[in-house]
Design brief:
The structure holds three protein chains of three kinds.
Chain A lengths: L2 H20 L16 H27 L4 H32 L8 H22 L3 H29 L12 H42 L1
Chain B lengths: L3 H18 L1 H22 L8 H23 L2 H9 L2 H7 L2 H30 L8 H26 L8 H24 L8 H34 L2
Chain C lengths: L4 H46 L1
Classes of the chains: A mainly alpha, B mainly alpha, C mainly alpha.
């Protein structure tokens, strides 16, 4: 990515952070209205996590079904790492919100449960990768798991809300200010995701090249 | 055309290999019986826990699925792990199509876990004295459909685990998040079958449990389909 | 509104830290890429010379 794009991304992130603090009105109806602003960080993180999870599943599928290109496996793996990080951030911001608004950081609310299981999936994915040595087998097995998990997780989102009582508001109408900040922040975080993904892929590539170089020297 | 013969051959081969050593059968059966014993010791010791009927039923439903999950995780991974260990995967690859291999092994695994569930479920429920308002038909339907889902996901995850060097515990780790929707519905359905939140008689229990059965059935269909599609790519390297 | 400024400053500082960190990592990867490319070109040249 061009340096200018990165600088613009940085400035935009700063602007939307400032807007979150100064432009958003405290959300009435919550025990701590001024702290409800954390949704401007919580929801965008969740969006970035979803985007990253999709990228991981799509490149996993591509690796599995379209000619075992090691680069696709690397893309899938890096996206999975980033998805786990964004999931973690979503969980943390959500726990802060829940502590102050619902009285406890963890309530086994459907969305909390879903994100926790998503974290478990990525943990299992990395354990699986660590357990296989042959790179091609590792790639194919990990890709098969992430695609299978990717098919099963939407089912989770459909099934679990039927069984667990939800604390998350379902009828929230964010006002225009919240809409602007949340979508803007989402764009910024997805931009950061793209940047990190780009760095990760370049690192994997250069690592492969360095290995090749070493082999040629030997 | 549909490869019924191949599936049948793989299925029979699985049963024969298992019957020769009975490792999966004996270890899982002992695991299940040991689990029931532990649950009974924990909950029926002296002084006995004073739980009312619905609480006992809820505890029994939760423990039943925990037990079935770990029982499955100890035994269902062997189907593919053995092929890799003995180096017979290549021979199998040459003689049968991927889908036939998977379905054959899935059927054998389903048979194994269903057999265990037939032993473990009544044992656990009588051990915890949770069966006073039981609706046996609904219980059978819920346990059977849940076991089929577990067998499907674990057969697929077992094929993945077979590639890894450290296999112990990995099957449970991989399949738990994917099985979570199944367990939520299965536990709810089991509670309904044991009389939680229902009045006596067949119809009310089924009214509560029908939604769970639908979820369990769709889970089984989706997991079998997804596993078949992905296994094709995995097997034909 | 005024009481938000110190908090905002902290938040912006954290963001600056995050961006700075990513920027440094980006530069490091870039430097690595350049080094490996240079070495790769050198080996190719050497191989041709030997031939």
């Amino acid at each position: 990515m061009a340096t200018i794009a990165k600088i613009v991304l940085g400035i935009l992130t700063g602007v939307f952070t400032a807007l979150a603090f100064l432009y958003l009105k405290p959300a009435e109806g919550f025990p701590r209205p001024e702290l409800a602003r954390i949704v401007a960080l919580h929801l965008p993180n969740a969006m970035a996590a979803i985007v990253a999870a999709f990228v991981a599943a799509i490149f996993g599928w591509k690796y599995l079904a379209r000619g075992r290109n090691p680069l696709d496996d690397a893309k899938s793996k890096i996206a999975a790492v980033l998805a786990a990080i964004f999931c973690g951030l979503t969980t943390v911001t959500g726990m802060v919100f829940a502590q102050y608004q619902w009285g406890a950081p963890w309530n086994w609310d459907p969305k909390q449960t879903c994100i926790f299981l998503l974290l478990l999936i990525y943990a299992a994915y990395f354990v699986l990768r660590a357990g296989i040595e042959d790179p091609e087998k590792k790639g194919a097995t990990a890709a098969a798991y992430i695609v299978f998990a990717g098919v099963m997780t939407p089912l989770l989102g459909y099934v679990i809300p039927k069984y667990l009582p939800s604390l998350h508001p379902t009828n929230t109408k964010f006002d225009a200010a919240y809409h602007t900040v949340i979508w803007g922040m989402s764009a910024c975080l997805i931009g950061i995701f793209a940047w990190l993904q780009n760095i990760g892929i370049r690192y994997e590539q250069v690592k492969g090249m360095a290995q090749q170089l070493e082999e040629e020297m030997a | 055309m549909w490869g019924v013969r191949e599936i049948h051959a793989v299925f029979l081969k699985e049963l024969r290999t298992e019957w020769r050593t009975k490792v999966a059968l004996s270890s899982t059966a002992l695991f299940a019986i040991g689990g029931v014993t532990l649950a009974a010791l924990a909950l029926r010791g002296n002084p006995p826990l004073a739980l009312d009927d619905p609480s006992r039923a809820s505890v029994a439903a939760g423990l039943l699925w925990i037990l079935l999950f770990f029982t499955g995780a100890t035994g269902l991974g062997r189907a593919f792990a053995l092929e890799e260990e003995r180096g017979t995967a290549l021979a199998l690859r040459l003689t049968a199509r991927a889908s036939a291999v998977w379905i054959g092994k899935f059927l054998a695994n389903a048979l194994l876990i269903l057999g265990l569930a037939i032993i473990a479920t009544p044992m656990l429920i009588t051990a915890l004295d949770a069966g006073r308002n039981v609706n046996a038909l609904l219980l059978t339907c819920v346990v059977a459909s849940g076991c089929i889902g577990i067998a499907a996901t674990m057969t697929f995850a077992g094929a993945l685990v077979a590639q890894a060097s450290a296999k112990s515990g990995l099957l449970a780790t991989l399949s738990l998040p994917a099985l979570a929707p199944l367990f939520v519905a299965a536990i709810h359905g089991t509670r309904a079958a044991l009389g939680v939140g229902t009045r006596l008689g067949i119809a009310p229990a089924f009214q509560t449990g029908m939604g769970d059965l639908q979820v369990l059935a769709s889970y089984a269909v989706i997991s079998v389909t997804a596993a078949l599609m992905l296994f094709d790519y995995l097997w034909n390297d | 509104m005024g009481e938000m400024f110190p908090l905002l400053a902290v938040a912006l500082l954290i963001w600056a830290g995050i961006f700075g960190f990513i920027f440094v990592v980006d530069r490091k990867v870039k430097a690595l890429e350049e080094r490996v490319n240079r070495e790769l070109a050198l080996t190719r040249k050497g191989e041709e010379a030997i031939r």
